[in-house]
């Protein structure tokens, strides 16, 4: 997918080279970080993609996509209602679950389903639904291999290779639209995202996102290599103890589109962009509530303008407001704001009080990295790629149950998941200490 995308979106290849340069510079400077990453086997793949995103049109597409990702050990985690931020979709992220699985494959796919009910005009809604009902986004061979994997609990090497090639077809860009230029424009007027989902043969991958070790440096240097970054980095400010997720993207490019009809019409569409991410500690509900409150506070004082005119001021206010979030691992742990992984250091000791054992040097704890997404940040990424006029009001309502019914399963609750990792690591470390195992 990475090779296909670099081929299709040359600016993305430029971004990947910039990220690789910046990551190499950081590792040259920070030998401790380089050693840490080498020790945990993460150095080789440091600049590889960490996530991508697609947008689907129907419940059937979503349910089949769940089955497709399950073949690769990727499962739906989290629910994001983007309608609250004026984007007519709701979403989950398919990803490996568990540390061992994530180490092998840290890639996730942010997957959105169009909220048809948010298309106001009934006639347009019907036309969109009718058009989507007749499209097939999975190849017959792909469907066959999904069924085989389900029946046999996996695929042989040969079938797996065929499956990857077939599945890739679903994510490819098609410059031939399926709908008339007229319908495209009416969908586009309802919301650009609706046109993006309904008009094409498949859910083209709309961005890929490598991990960067210095997101601010990449943001600053994008213009030097001829790509135009969105106005501000989404998420928390730069900190000594990184929390959650910071992300930024370059703006989507105009691409040529051909509409069907007797006199095929040429047009253009903006859909595909590139993004970078930097991750920090997963926050507890208490930490997340503090993060959300601080971000609300920032946004009440300043809304980042799409053209970047108030970007410096935004960064200043963001930094100022977030001084209220402790920037010290010990404080974050003591106040119960973040999740940590416990381990026994090898120093003998007995007891059941984690704090005492930590103080005695018998236990240690390390931040658990946040592997999921943030709805306000996601909305910022969507919007920077939809153009300035795209912010719209929708009536927000909690639709998680509807989404899960369409998906055909529940999504994993991210807080319960991180809490479970923390608890299991503590239990195992205490057992090691007290039983000498
Ligand atoms: C997805 C935008 C959300 C992120 O990193 O938060 C996202 C989309 O534009 O389809 O990828
Ligand atoms: Ni993204």
Mind explaining what this structure looks like?
The structure is a single chain. With 437 residues, this protein is an alpha+beta fold. The protein has a single domain, classed as Roll (2,3-Dihydroxybiphenyl 1,2-Dioxygenase, domain 1), CATH 3.10.180. It is 45% helix and 15% strand. It has 18 helices and 11 strands. The strands form 4 sheets. It has a 5-stranded mixed sheet with strand order 2-3-4-1-5. Strand 2 and strand 3 (89-95) form a beta hairpin. Helix 1 (2-8) crosses helix 2 (10-29), helix 9 (181-190) crosses helix 10 (192-198) and helix 12 (285-301) packs across helix 13. 2-oxoadipic acid (OOG) is lined by residues 53, 55, 110, 112, 206, 247, 275, 373, 377-378, 381-382.
Keywords:
two-stranded antiparallel ribbon; binds 2-oxoadipic acid; binds nickel (II) ion; single chain; alpha+beta; 18 helices; 437 residues; 2,3-Dihydroxybiphenyl 1,2-Dioxygenase, domain 1; 5-stranded mixed beta sheet
CATH architecture: Roll
Give the terminus-to-terminus CA distance. 44 Å
Strand content: 15-25%
Biggest beta sheet summary: 5 strands, mixed
- The SS-based structural class is alpha+beta
Tally of distinct domains: 1
Give the SSE map.
Elements: H1 2-8, H2 10-29, H3 31-39, E1 49-56, H4 59-71, E2 75-81, E3 89-95, H5 99-104, E4 108-114, H6 122-133, H7 140-152, H8 157-170, H9 181-190, H10 192-198, E5 207-210, H11 215-221, E6 245-250, E7 254-259, E8 265-270, E9 274-279, H12 285-301, H13 311-321, H14 329-334, E10 340-344, H15 354-359, E11 363-367, H16 375-384, H17 400-407, H18 414-435
Parallel strand pairs: 1-4
Antiparallel strand pairs: 1-5, 2-3, 3-4, 6-9, 7-8, 10-11
Helix pairs in contact: 1-2, 4-17, 7-8, 9-10, 12-13
2-oxoadipic acid binds at residues 53, 55, 110, 112, 206, 247, 275, 373, 377-378, 381-382.
């Amino acid at each position: 997918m990475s090779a296909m995308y670099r081929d299709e979106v040359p600016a993305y290849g430029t971004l990947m080279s910039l990220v690789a340069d910046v990551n190499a510079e950081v590792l040259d400077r920070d030998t401790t970080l380089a050693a840490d990453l080498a020790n945990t086997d993460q150095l080789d793949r440091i600049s590889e993609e960490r996530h991508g995103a697609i947008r689907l049109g129907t419940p059937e597409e979503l349910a089949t996509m769940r089955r497709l990702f399950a073949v690769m050990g990727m499962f739906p985690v989290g629910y994001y209602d983007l309608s609250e931020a004026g984007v007519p979709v709701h979403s989950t992220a398919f990803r490996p679950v568990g540390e061992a699985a994530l180490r092998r494959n840290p890639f996730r796919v942010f997957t959105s389903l169009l909220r048809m009910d948010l298309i106001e005009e009934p006639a347009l809604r019907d036309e969109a639904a009718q058009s989507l009902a007749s499209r097939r986004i999975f190849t017959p061979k792909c469907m066959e291999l999904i069924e085989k994997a389900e029946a046999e609990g996996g695929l042989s090497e040969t079938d797996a290779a065929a499956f990857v090639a077939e599945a890739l077809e679903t994510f490819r860009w098609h410059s031939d639209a399926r709908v008339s230029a007229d319908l495209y424009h009416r969908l586009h007027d309802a919301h650009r995202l609706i046109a993006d989902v309904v008009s094409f043969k498949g859910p083209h991958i709309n961005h890929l996102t490598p991990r960067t070790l210095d997101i601010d440096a990449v943001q600053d240097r994008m213009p030097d290599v001829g790509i135009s970054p969105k106005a501000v980095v989404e998420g928390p400010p730069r900190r000594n103890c990184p929390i959650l997720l910071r992300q930024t993207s370059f703006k989507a490019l105009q691409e040529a589109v051909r509409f069907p009809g007797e006199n095929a019409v040429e047009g253009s569409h903006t859909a595909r962009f590139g993004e970078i991410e930097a991750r920090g500690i997963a926050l507890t509900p208490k930490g997340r509530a503090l993060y959300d409150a601080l971000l609300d506070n920032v946004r009440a004082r300043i809304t980042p303008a799409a053209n970047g005119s108030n970007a410096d001021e935004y960064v200043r206010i963001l930094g100022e407001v977030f001084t209220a979030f402790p920037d010290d691992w010990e404080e974050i742990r003591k106040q119960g704001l973040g999740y940590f992984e416990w381990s026994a250091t090898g120093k003998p000791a007995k007891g059941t009080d984690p704090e005492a054992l930590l103080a005695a040097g018998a236990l240690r704890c390390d931040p658990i990295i946040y592997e999921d997404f943030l709805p306000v940040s996601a909305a910022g990424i969507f919007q920077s790629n939809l153009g300035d006029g795209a912010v719209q009001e929708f009536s927000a309502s909690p639709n998680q149950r509807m989404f899960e019914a369409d998906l055909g399963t529940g999504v994993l609750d991210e807080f319960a998941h991180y809490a479970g990792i923390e608890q299991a690591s503590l239990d195992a470390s205490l057992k090691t200490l007290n039983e000498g195992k």
